[in-house]
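hi!! sorry for the late reply, been swamped w classes. u asked for the two structures so here they r. pasted raw, havent cleaned anything up. first the sequence of the first protein and right below it the tokens
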Amino acid sequence: MTSRYASLSRDELATLVPELLLIGQLIDRSGMAWCISAFGREEMAQIAIEEWAGSSPFYTRRMQSALGYEGTDVVTIFKGLQLDIGAPPQFMDFRYSVTDPWHGEFWLDHCGALMDVEPMGEDYVRSMCHDIEDPTFDATAVATNAKAQVRPIHRPPRASTDQHPHCRWTVVIDEAHDPVTPLPPYYEVEPKRAVTVELDPIRSGGEGLDDYSGPLVADLDFAAFSHAALVRIADEVCLQMHLLNLSFGIAVARRATSVEQAREICTRQLIGIAGIAAERLRAALSLPADEAGAARVLALLPLLNPVAYTGGVLDVTRGATVTVSPSDAAADGGWITLCGPGREAPLQAAVRAVDPHLDVEVVGSAAAWTLTVVRRDEPAPEASEVAVTRFSTGATFAFQPRRSLPVFPV
């Protein structure tokens, strides 16, 4: 099944991919506020650990396979971080140093997540930079080598706001290390269809790189990739978000007092990220602020991609409609099950980010429904869930041009 992103130009895709990586990072800015409210800071931290540990090993291996850089060394781990929603370029400004295949360091010249959490106080900083990072970095590394250990040289809380880099870590692979084993959430995500869904292969022949088998570079230049590679990267990044959300939903359900509470928290997370994602995608691709533009934004939204997983049909020729039918995403119990007739709020947040006068009309059943974008006379206020997500500096973060330089062993 052809990707929806295939309709974009190579230049548009090079703009889109870092946006998608940043949107993936902002899922937590949207969801964790409601977890804190419902369960408190300490349980929020445990949800984050389970969420990332349950999803990142699967999507890390998927990207390695898609772009042909599978291996067991430090460079493979670092390449994976560059294509991980947990480390979007520039917003989470990872820098890398490689000593040899088994030893390296990375540090963050800028950590957008720290900028978001630091104003909340030292307890929240420690939760993120200590409690959450330790197990989740190892969980990501285990996808490449079970003998990899990621350990801090220094990390926040910072002595002052002038302290840079924000944190620094070593990565050491040693046969003497005890192997890292997946955390229990891994096994709950493993049966999900998102883990194994097949996407269109990268067919060589166009201009640009079809893989990332060459040397590690300090900053990925997405414009250097071929159209086919960028389409696959975009689809894989969306799958990362679905896997992260599935793991999030499992962790929330484990703590919720009812099915209704779990659904409410997950819906609020989706409303927040849908609004910010739609706003950023429309601006990045200069789409029109009208019904057709909103339908186009919906078609590019991670909620409805990759089409091989989410299904659905876009038709802008007959009133800007999106039709959703049973899919692997629905079978997994993912985001799409939070939308439909009587569950319009996430879809409304997305179209109102294009223009607050826009709305959606949804007809059909919970399993199969059709959305039509319509215009109202009065503008709607921004949803509180979108306003909460906008608290993140990532909501307005602007990417800057970077030179792509190789990272050589020192």
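now the second protein. again sequence first, tokens right under
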Amino acid sequence: MAHIVVMGAGIGGVAAAIEVREGLSKQHQVTVVSDLENFQFTPSNPWLAVQWRKPEELKVPLAPVFKKKKINFIPVGAKRVLPDENRLELQNGESVAYDYLVIATGPKLAFEELPGLGPHGGHTHSICTLQHAEIASKAYEEFCKNPGPIIIGAAPGVSCFGPAYEYAMILSTDLRRRGIRDKVPMTYITSEPYVGHLGLGGVGDTKGMLESGFRDRDIKWIVNAKTTAIEPGLLKCTELDDQGQVKKEHEVPFKFAMVMPAFKGVDALMGVEGLVNPRGFVIIDKNQRNPKYRNVFGVGVCVAIPPVEATPVPTGTPKTGYMIESMVTATAHNIAALIAGREAKEEGTWNAVCLADFGDKGVAFVAKPQIPPRNVNWSSEGRWVHLAKIAYEKYFLRKVRKGQSEPVYERYIMKLLGIERLRRALS
């Protein structure tokens, strides 16, 4: 009997536990370890932050889901990964031994890397977690009683730009509906070299579409921005040119701000030589396996992926939802193969299918694969994207409640788009 432990219960962790469980016979044991008792649908956080959603609408209790799928669940966070001993040390002092480990923790938010950043002791808000989005929503309601300038942006080293664009557009839509948009100057300040770069070198015409979206909504922008400090009501940044030389110094006032932080690995992983890189991201090969600890796999935002290109201000590569599910499928098949005595040879496609909502319409893009060069590089915009994002939210939450990984209709739709989770047919 093999014991497979999944560390984390977000989009990657829940999917990994279900797919691993479905790929193995009952004699094998699957356990999920997480500091969260509920699955939280992170893509809807921009809506929550303007009170278009309630927190309870975006949560799914995990214990009943895992019980139905015959998966053990330990709602306690991991304190330390000990790969030389094949076990996890937990925050409550207990430990869990494993034969195979799937790390799907997501990131740690590196607020401390920029003075004044973050909702806890800083001067900006975050939408990276449900709890942060809820805090931001309350502050936003107070802001609307006496509005002023807003800053939305991304700090140096950020890899997740999509939510910042969504939130900026959604805020503008909500402010118009409240009849106070004219009282709120808005500025988007980002480490990207141009609007629509997204850490991906752009996808299709995301540059043109997002610049047009900002112009239509009277949102100013500063790109190649190296934010250096955030003080109460004031963001300081240095704008660089394409050669990395100082172009202009900015001091931008704000009354409300949301700035995405850079990511790094969680504390339980930091400094484990051979398992993670210096920032704590899990080192993996093309089969999602760690090169040193061959019974350890990594999926999702916690894995190490190099930037797609050098930029004047450092940017990272995002790990989007379908890309994460592709990693999960490859991992599940590879673990099943290893347990059966076969070679682990499956590779995820790492394709990106993204819906960015603007509150009334939006932008969709498909990148196949996500990291250039690509076979498909497509983007589109319209009201249909807004409606599709709402449908996707309902669909995904239902999928989690049902304990499903990839229903047949999802597989069919993705195939029509030319998107597969694995690079090769299963043997």
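hope this helps!! also noticed smth abt the second:
The chain has two domains: 3-109+264-348, 114-261.
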